[in-house]
Amino acid sequence: MLAKLTLSDILRPAEKTAAVIYDIVMVLAGSLLIALSAQVAVGWPVPFTGQTFAVLFIAALLGGKNAAICVTLYLAEGICGLPVFSAARSGIAMLLGPTGGYLIGFIPAAFVTGWLAQRGWDRKFVTTIAAMITGSIIFYSIGLVWLSVIIKAENVFAVGLLPFIAGDILKILLAAALLPTVWKLVDKQK
Hints:
With 190 residues, this protein is mostly helical. It contains 9 helices and no strands. The chain is globular and about 55 Å long. The two termini are 22 Å apart. The model has no long low-confidence stretch (mean pLDDT 92).
């Protein structure tokens, strides 16, 4: 399947310098959206946040490469001391703590979800769900492996996965409703 445009590609200027500036602004805006969504946080040691929705949604909007850059920038902001992680926390300790694997897992999850969107998976309800589930499997896999280093292995699924399934289903359904709807509106404007 050939690569298709993502939603952010539609507005990208044709002129090369303007296109680079546009991509930089989109990546920065995406990292800000992830940071804001992280502030909606409840629970411990792995809090419920809006981050997962933001990461996967931004991935579909930006495509694989720019989404991975966006998430990497977000992590760099937090490591450098900006209060972008859940509950306005920051620092390298966040990557070494219980949520570190999930945070690192956001990078490949964003890349793969964005790559799938570039192949048109964000244009239909069912394929959007499949792309978002694929991204979720990636960050949960990395997050759970890291969490098993931090806590007892028999508690990993009970602490780091099961409580989040219902919320993630809702987030995935929201993305699956929004993305194809926006594409339908874009297609009508052509």
